Amino acid sequence: MKAKQSVACVAILAALLPVGINAVEPAPAYVPTAENLKAREEFQRDRFGVFIHWGLYALLAAGGEARGSSEWIMEQKKIPIAKYERLAEFFNPVRFDAMEWVREFKDAGASYVTITSKHHDGFAMYDSKVSSYDVVERTPFRRDIIKELKAACDAQGLKLFIYYSQLDWHHPDYFPAGRTGRDYPGRPDLGNWDKYIDYQNAQLTEILTQYGKLGGIWFDGWWDRENDAYRDRWRLEETYALIHRLQPQALIGNNHHQQPFAGEDFQMFEQDLPGENAAGFNKAAISHLPLEMADTMNSTWGFSLTDAGFKSTKEVIHRLVGAAGRNANYLLNTGPMPDGRLQPENVQTLRDIGEWMKVNRESIVGTRGGPVAPMPWGVTTHSGNAIYVHVLNWNEPQLLVPVKRKIARATLLSSGAAVTVKRQPDGIALSLPDSALSQIDTVIKLHLK
Questions:
Q1: Strand runs (DSSP E) across 296-395, as ranges?
Q2: Given 3-state DSSP classes, what are the helix, strand and coil percentages for the chain, each rounded to the nearest 5?
Q3: Residue 20 in this model has a pLDDT that exceeds 60
Q4: 131-to-128, 232, 243, 344, 350 alpha-carbon distances in Å
Q5: Under CATH, what is the fold of the domain 370-448?
Q6: Can you give the pLDDT at residue 28?
Q7: Percentage of residues in the chain having pLDDT higher than 70
Q8: Is 235 helix (H, G, I), strand (E, B) or coil?
Q9: Helices (H) and strands (E) in the chain, counts
Q10: What is the pLDDT of residues 107-161, one digit of tens each?
Q11: Cα separation of 316 and 16, whole Å?
């Protein structure tokens, strides 16, 4: 890290932060602004977003045998910092077209995009003034990816969220190493943790002041220091207050796999539907905040040449529907290729989702989780005077749905055809011929009296 970085870091903070970086006065308890509460409501209506994991690690296209072995390659192979830095010399994604990316996302039915501005390797995918370790200064590409993506999102009506890794394997002041980043050749033996937090907050200040109105900040990496003496030294209250001051509407989420902390505006679940824990680290109870499930299309977040374990369109739609039925958004990831194109397999999946959404969008976007808890056959969503019954597995002649509301009529969302409804003591029984059932999701719209 060059000397100009720490000097510029302090200069940016001095100019932009309302309180000195060493202030000790406690901040008042977080109370969401009206703008923030409105943004939460909009976020819950959005229901579907696209996640982008893109960085220098895409060049290595690591194998997909281990979870995260693409974007985690620096850690897994213990690549010396000086060697890893040289990847920037080869990063030249000349086929990157932000407008084309966003067009694909919008056509798929997505309402927002979340992109990595800095992953655990410490490399900034935007024009950072507090560090020269970024895409504009270090690569032959020399273009600000975040700036171009934000312009494309604005032009096509999608919100942009920014992923930021609190963990940093590259920065010398991220010291001492936590659960990861140990034994790297070239890592210094000394560092100043508070200087690192100052650097983090300076980069966040850049992001929040350079690109206009953002949907929010998606944090990751806090878990690297959750169990040691540094747990209380993250200065989260200060960081969160900074974000909410600069952009009151911006939502904060943190992928720490615990109950939401004070100052956070939504709760995320990684690779799991809320309430499930197949991944092994989603043990936190479901909070009252807006919810989001982040999911991969295969096993890795970043691009991988060898990870061909792509989820089928049916599986992805079931997870989208399952999230909506649990009152959560679905954030589906794509790892772009080193040349700037989206993976063809991912594009096809997005287009398949888009075709499904053309017919079923009203049962997902703008809805909340329905009155029926998730059942073996599927889930429900609701909006206004309608309940949408998403039947993912129809194995009986009749489907018993424990809805006590009075139903005026029931129709297939795909065709408007009538569905037979019979009142039962515990709800309603729905009947359909086998020929009317969908191979993916039979959506029945209950029109309430």
A1: 328-334, 368-369, 378-383, 386-391
A2: 30, 20, 50
A3: no
A4: 6, 26, 20, 34, 35
A5: Immunoglobulin-like (2.60.40)
A6: 62
A7: 92
A8: coil
A9: 11, 16
A10: 999 999 999 999 999 999 999 999 999 999 999 999 999 999 999 999 999 999 9
A11: 42
Question: Shortest CA distance to 251 belongs to which of 149, 166, 159?
Answer: 159
CB neighbours of residue 4 within 10 Å: 12
Enter the CATH code of domain 3-366.
3.20.20.80
Those residues whose C-beta lies under 8 Å from the C-beta of residue 159, and which sit 6 or more positions away, are: 46, 111, 112, 113, 153, 214, 215
Angle at which helices 98-107 and 145-156 cross, to 10°? 40
What digits encode the pLDDT tens for the residues 227-282?
Answer: 767 778 999 999 999 999 999 999 999 999 999 999 999 999 999 999 999 989 89
* 250, two tokens: 């911006």
Residues listed for the chain: 449
pLDDT at 380 over 80: yes
Residues 6+ apart with CB under 8 A from 109: 48, 353, 354, 357, 361, 364, 365
Where are the chain's structural domains?
3-366, 370-448
Average pLDDT score over the chain: 92
Tokens representing 119 are 């992953």
Three-class DSSP category at 354? helix
* R_g over Cα of the chain: 23
Task: Inform me whether the pLDDT recorded for 174 exceeds 60.
Answer: yes
In this structure, which amino acid lies at residue 409?
R
Q: Strand pairing partners for 218?
A: 163, 253
Task: Please name the residue that has the structure tokens 């009252």.
Answer: 288
Per the structure block, which two tokens stand in for 221?
């990496």
Q: In which residue are the tokens 């000394």 written?
A: 190
